[in-house]
Structures are given as C-alpha cells and as structure tokens.
C-alpha cells in the first residue's frame, strides 16, 4: 500500500491507499436515497499477523449527501499515529442503485469503496478492498434536531472495543440504556468478555450515568478508566436514526463501535430480505464483513463478504441456518450469537456471546 496524506488544520492525517481499487459498477438511480445531513461513524483498523492493532482511525460527526452522488465531511478524526482528535475534511462520491445497494468512496482509503445498503436513509457497510478492516454507519439527522427528550425508553446495545495494540485487551459486551428523556440513564448493568480473560465473563455496573445532547448527538459519560476487570469507561458519542429505533456510536478518543436498537420484543415479525455489516475478533484476528440474508419460515440463507487480514485478505461465506424466536422476541443461533429486534422486526442487532 501507498501512504497518502491530507492537510487537516495543522496536523497531517495519513490516508491509506490500496495498490488496486475495487471496481464494481452500480446504476445511480437510487442516489436520492442518501440526501441531506447525517451523523456517521467509521472505524478503520490495521492489524499485524497476530491480530494486534498497528494503526487505527475513527471518523465521526456529520456527513452531507447531496442526493446526486457527492458527499462532504467536516468532522473529527482520532488517529492512533497522532494521539488526539483533530479536524478532518474530505469530499467524495457515492453511487446507490434503485434497490438501495451501492457504495461510498472510502474517506480514509480513498481508492477503495465501502459497500453497503441504504434503507430509511440509514447506510451500513464495510470495505474488503485494502489491507485494513472497517465498519461504517450513517443515519439522517432528524428534524427537529434531537434533544434529551428524544432519547427515551429501553435500548439494547451491542458494543466491541479494540482499545490497544494488544488483542487480549479487546472487550465485547451487552447492556441496556434506560433513558428517561431528561438526561438520566441510572445504573447501567453491563456483561461481556475481555479477550485476555479467556472464558471468564466480566460484569460491571456503571452508576448514575447521565447524558446530554449537543447539535442532535448524545454525549454519555460512563466515568472511570479501563482496567482488566471492567468493560466500559469514559465518554461515548451516541447518534440515532430519525425514527429513534437505531442508535450507534463510540468513543471520540478510541476505536470502539456500538450499535443498538430500541427494544420492543418485535422479533416475531422477522422475515424477508435484510442487509448487514459487522465486526468481530476471533482468535486474535479482526473480521469485518458486509452481506445479506433472507429469512422465511424459520430458515435463513445468508452470504457475507469477510475481510480477515490474518488470513491475508477477503473471502466469501455463504451458509444456511434455522431460527426460532423466543417469547421475548429475540433468538440465538448455533454460533452463539444473540439477536435483538426493533420496529416490528425491521432492525436486527447481533451480539456474540462467546469469549
């Protein structure tokens, strides 16, 4: 790969450029599905052969889609090579077909594409075209602009945190945010795993957690610092879809990613064609992927395009499985992933329960 660069304020932020770009053509008849201002988060991970991070970049803030195939960002980036959040500007292109499937020019690795799908203005996707892994989500900024009262109800959050160059510090955890619409989350019970602790699970209670909104995004303060015995600490930025059913975000000074749904036990409506993207760590290696699935009558047919740098690149994975929705509207598959739904089954979030 060739290392490019752009000038951002007084700091140079490196851009990774792949030796060869992905070339997939789409019709642009769906470009209008992405239009206006959205909040977004992209995290970009580069690992060594043992799965340890050698560089990571998170971009977060607002992205403006013009509805005609062009976007611009004027936002913040946190680069492990810089060590602080810095201003970041970039203008790029996108192409979306009438089905909603398409690609966005990667704002970090600029000659690769983020492949994904847009529905209700929400775009979720990932790249598999360079020597890196990434995950990208954007969602339209609601009108009127969200305030503290917009975040109300119970949200189930799936969270993964690659917080150092040592893969043993990676943590994956699940929790619920019970928002009262007035800036209070109360005590938050968190459970999950830290890679270096093996099969031993970790539990944590964050007390008296509060949030506030600024320009339509939430700032949540969990307090404390990360140790070998806790799962979450510090400040997280939370963005929400215009309908309030999907939330996502992460740390302004880290390379974690969380995604959650406003839990409503509506999984019994699960069915039809879905698009997905995700990230996991398996045996030290970071996998990122995008793909689609068809669910009907308790059977799933699924395809994923997976990027695994430890295995030296991307590969395709197609498989079938079965599902049975539990009484609470969730289900778990044979791989040990739990799925939670929102909005009458339109959103599904997964959490890997293994270590």
Report on the architecture of this protein:
This protein has 355 residues and is an all-beta fold. Helices cover 0% and strands 60% of the residues. The protein contains no helices and 25 strands. It has an 8-stranded antiparallel β-barrel. Strand 5 (70-79) and strand 6 form a beta hairpin. The radius of gyration is 19 Å and the shape is globular. Residues 1-23 have low confidence and may be disordered.
Features:
355 residues; mainly beta; globular; disordered N terminus
Fraction in beta strands: over 45%
Radius of gyration, in angstroms, nearest whole number: 19 Å
End-to-end separation in angstroms reads 33 Å
Number of helices: 0
Helical percentage: under 10%
Structural class, please?
A: mainly beta
């Amino acid at each position: 790969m060739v290392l490019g660069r752009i000038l951002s304020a007084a700091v140079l932020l490196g851009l990774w450029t792949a030796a060869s770009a992905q070339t997939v053509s789409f019709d642009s008849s769906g470009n209008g599905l992405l239009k206006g201002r959205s909040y977004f988060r992209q995290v970009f991970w580069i690992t060594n052969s043992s799965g340890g991070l050698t560089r990571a970049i998170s971009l977060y803030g607002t992205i403006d889609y013009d509805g005609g195939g062009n976007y611009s960002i004027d936002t913040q980036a946190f680069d492990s090579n810089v060590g602080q959040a810095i201003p970041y500007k970039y203008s790029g292109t996108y192409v979306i077909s009438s089905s909603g499937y398409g690609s966005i020019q990667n704002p970090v690795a600029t000659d690769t594409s983020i492949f994904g799908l847009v529905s209700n203005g929400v775009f979720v996707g990932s790249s598999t075209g360079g020597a890196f892994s990434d995950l990208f989500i954007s969602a339209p900024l609601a009108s009127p602009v969200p305030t503290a009262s917009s975040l109300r109800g119970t949200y189930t959050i799936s969270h993964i945190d690659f917080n150092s160059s040592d893969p043993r510090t990676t943590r994956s955890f699940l929790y619920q945010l019970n928002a009262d619409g007035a800036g209070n989350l109360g005590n938050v019970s968190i459970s999950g795993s830290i890679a270096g602790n093996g099969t031993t699970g970790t539990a944590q209670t964050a007390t008296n957690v509060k949030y506030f909104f600024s320009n339509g995004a939430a700032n949540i303060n969990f307090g404390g610092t990360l140790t070998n015995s806790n799962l979450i600490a510090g400040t997280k930025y939370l963005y929400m879809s215009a309908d309030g059913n999907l939330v996502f975000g992460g740390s302004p000074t880290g390379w974690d990613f969380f995604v959650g749904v406003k839990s409503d036990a509506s999984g019994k409506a699960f069915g039809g064609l879905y698009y997905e993207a995700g990230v996991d760590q398996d045996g030290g290696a970071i996998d990122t992927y995008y793909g689609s699935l068809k669910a009907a009558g308790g059977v799933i047919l699924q395809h994923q395009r997976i990027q695994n740098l430890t295995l030296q690149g991307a590969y395709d994975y197609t498989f079938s499985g079965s599902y049975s929705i539990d009484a609470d509207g969730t289900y778990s598959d044979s791989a040990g992933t739990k799925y939670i739904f929102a909005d009458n089954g339109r959103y599904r979030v997964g959490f890997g329960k293994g270590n």
